[in-house]
Description:
- The protein has a ten-stranded mixed sheet, with helices on both faces.
- Helix 2 (62-80) links the parallel strand 2 (34-41) and strand 3.
- By secondary structure, the protein is α/β, with parallel strands linked by helices.
- The chain folds into two domains: 6-150, 3-Layer(aba) Sandwich (Rossmann fold); 160-285, HUPs (Rossmann fold, 3-Layer(aba) Sandwich).
- It is elongated, with a radius of gyration of 20 Å.
- It contains ten helices and ten strands.
- Helix 3 (95-105) packs parallel to helix 4, helix 6 (171-185) packs across helix 7 (204-225) and helix 8 runs parallel beside helix 10 (272-278).
Amino acid sequence: MTRFDDILFPVDLSAHCVQMAPYVASVARKFDSTLTLLHVIDASDPFGYGALSSTWTYGTDPAELEQQNDNEITRFAESVFSGLRVNRVLEFGKPGPEITRFASQNNADLVLMPTHGYGGFRRLLLGSVTSAVLHEAHCPVWTATHTEQFCASRSQTTAQIVCGVDLSPNSTALVRTACDLAKQYGANVHLVHAVGSDLLAEEAPFQRFLLDTAKHKLAELQVAAQTHLESYVRPGSTAEVLRQAAVEAGAQLMIVGRGHARSSLGGLRTNLHVIVRESPCPVLSV
């Protein structure tokens, strides 16, 4: 059974962080997790890594700054995560590397964090910290761009899950993970595979061949995974096909494969940043 016993939640007290906190709490309660709030103080950045952070007072003594931040994080934890097992950790350094280092050294099962793209640039900017964590972390990363939308609802029910598969050798394990999480949530899983639009720029018979081949491979994948899930094979870019499938299914969660920077990059991995940026719901990359 898929477990997230130790969840790492990087905290900067930005608007996105505060908005996502109730969602983080619901995930921690679902898996009876120990939750670690990690706040990284970037002494070289007077604006804080969230750009909207209010935790920095320029020129403050490091010891005083640490105490100030600790007080703020403590108040935040007490207001949102009451009843949960919560650890609070403060570190100095660059947020992206520190988050991935801490997750690795402390064997975190999951990093759960919002992205930090703001204003009119939301569709263009994923956020450098989130980007670094997605690129380097060796554990699953659960993140979302549109925090204000899905967190605005009081209901944190996960009833529909979209699982994007690239039909690589790792797809069978990914489908089983999606099914395992779906069982714990009582959710339905929809398998989705995109056939790139650049491959479909040929003549119609070749287009049909590509789509039929993908459908056949997806059927073989279900046999290997021992599943009988609703599945879709559609033409278009991976991010757009997954986004549309999530919208149609009313999905509350999207699951995709990720790997890490040292692995050979598969189709979903190379599109991961765009997938996260365009998804209407949170994305769990494993």
